[in-house]
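Students often ask why inverse folding is considered easier than folding. One informal answer: many sequences map to the same fold, so there is more than one right answer. In these notes we will look at a single instance of the problem. The structure comes first.
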């Protein structure tokens, strides 16, 4: 058997790649440190406090100074905090505080690193799926995935759903203010359903998800939010959830996860009011792979490899759209199911919002 001649090595390119990989190593290890900083309240203790010593931070958080000092050094090396050698103090800049310490901020990030931790724990399952071709259902993942997903997506929904996404849909906001029947399909822990219920007290809402554990948590969240009298959560799949005549149906970051998205779309069409609206929120993606080779696309392709594609392949049909399906492929699915009017109603750097009508 002939062997190919060894390719010449460009030492400069090799060095460049190795250093890039070193950066990846630091980022990967820092995922665990971000979770520590979040769970132990280290970021929150530093937020708005100005320069602090490692001992002051340890005292504020009831932790051990030696551990805190090492954590701070790693955070400073990664640019997450700043270090003043003259005073031997550490500061969390206000921009980083918004992303790491303020749970009401639209850019609050720690929840995503719970997702990362769940993916690492579940790597053996995905490795086996690569070999077998079988799927891995959402319910089969580490429990941290469910809470992390809700915690990561909720700030984005809080910032955009009521202020810009729903107002971008023709006539929908007025219906919700007057009083409408709403289905939130694939609702997870219910963050999106509860946000809508709080904003539109004259409307009634039902959240559906096939994962019973998520529905249990959503019911508790509705009680805490004081909206349980207008919000119900039920275990059901996207292709068979009950009810007819919904004025508004919403899918948040879940259509691409479904094995048979066209079948789900046909079911939505059958449950909508004649003048109803379906809002589909999906990860932002361009239609061509080469146009998604950027930092946002990188995160979404990685998440899709570990979560979205395995979820789809675990179900009937197993279309495997993936998190970077793009507007063109998604619109084709919706039109094939019978929707005649499909348009992009809104977008952010992380989401596209499609409006589909009968």
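Output (designed amino acids):
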């Amino acid at each position: 058997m002939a062997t190919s001649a060894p390719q010449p090595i460009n030492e400069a390119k090799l060095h460049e790649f190795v250093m890039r990989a070193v950066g990846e190593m630091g980022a990967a290890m820092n995922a665990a440190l971000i979770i520590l900083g979040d769970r132990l309240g280290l970021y929150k203790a530093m937020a708005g406090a100005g320069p602090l010593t490692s001992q002051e931070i340890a005292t504020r958080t009831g932790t051990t100074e030696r551990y805190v000092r090492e954590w701070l050094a790693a955070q400073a090396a990664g640019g997450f905090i700043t270090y003043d050698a003259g005073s031997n103090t550490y500061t969390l800049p206000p921009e980083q505080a918004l992303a790491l310490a303020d749970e009401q901020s639209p850019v609050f990030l720690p929840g995503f690193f719970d997702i990362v931790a769940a993916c690492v724990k579940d790597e053996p399952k995905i490795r086996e799926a690569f070999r077998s071709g079988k799927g891995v259902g959402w319910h089969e993942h580490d429990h941290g995935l469910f809470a992390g997903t809700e915690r990561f997506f909720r700030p984005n929904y809080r910032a955009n759903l009521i202020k810009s996404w729903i107002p971008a849909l023709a006539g929908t906001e007025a219906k919700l203010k007057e009083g409408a029947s709403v289905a939130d399909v694939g609702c997870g822990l219910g963050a999106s359903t509860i946000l809508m219920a709080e904003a539109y007290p004259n409307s009634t809402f039902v959240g559906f998800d096939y994962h019973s554990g998520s529905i249990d948590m959503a019911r508790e969240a509705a009680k805490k939010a004081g909206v349980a009298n207008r919000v119900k959560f039920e275990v059901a799949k996207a292709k068979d959830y009950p009810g007819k005549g919904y004025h508004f149906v919403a899918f948040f970051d879940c259509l691409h996860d479904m094995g048979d998205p066209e079948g789900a779309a046909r079911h939505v069409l059958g449950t909508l009011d004649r003048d109803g609206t379906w809002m589909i929120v999906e990860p932002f993606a361009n239609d061509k792979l080469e146009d998604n080779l950027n930092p946002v696309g990188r995160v979404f392709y990685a998440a899709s490899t570990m979560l979205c594609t395995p979820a789809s392949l675990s179900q009937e049909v197993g279309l495997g759209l993936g998190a970077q399906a793009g507007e063109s492929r998604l619109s084709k699915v919706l039109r094939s199911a019978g929707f005649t009017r499909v348009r992009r109603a809104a977008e952010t750097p992380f989401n596209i919002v499609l409006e589909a009508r009968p």
